[in-house]
Amino acid sequence: MARALVLLSVVLVSLLVNQGRASDNQRLFNNAVIRVQHLHQLAAKMINDF
Predict the structure, then answer these.
(1) 1 touches 40 (CB < 8 A)
(2) Which phi and psi (to 5°) does residue 23 adopt?
(3) Residue 22 Ramachandran class (φ > 0 left, ψ -120 to 50 alpha, else beta)
(4) pTM higher than 0.90
(5) Residue extents of the structural domains in the chain
(6) pLDDT value at position 9?
(7) How many CA atoms lie within 13 A of 39 on its CB side?
(8) Which residues contact 5 (CB under 8 A, 6 or more apart)?
(9) Which of 32, 40, 29 is closest to 5 using CA atoms?
(10) Which residue, 14, 17, 22, 49, could crosslink 26 as a Cys pair with Cβ 3.0–4.6 Å?
(11) pLDDT tens track for 2-50
(12) Please, are residues 18 and 30 in contact by the beta-carbon 8 Å criterion?
């Protein structure tokens, strides 16, 4: 979980640095990282609830 948060932080900082200059591939990758983090959080919650 900590790795996902660090990775998300790096992605968000890169977005701020680029200020909209990210290529389509970078934007798609950033979206994928955010979705993976969300899925990871859902899985962790499901395991804790189980």
Answers:
(1) yes
(2) -75, 170
(3) beta
(4) no
(5) 2-49
(6) 75
(7) 6
(8) 37
(9) 40
(10) 22
(11) 677 777 777 777 776 665 665 778 889 999 999 999 999 999 999 998 8
(12) no
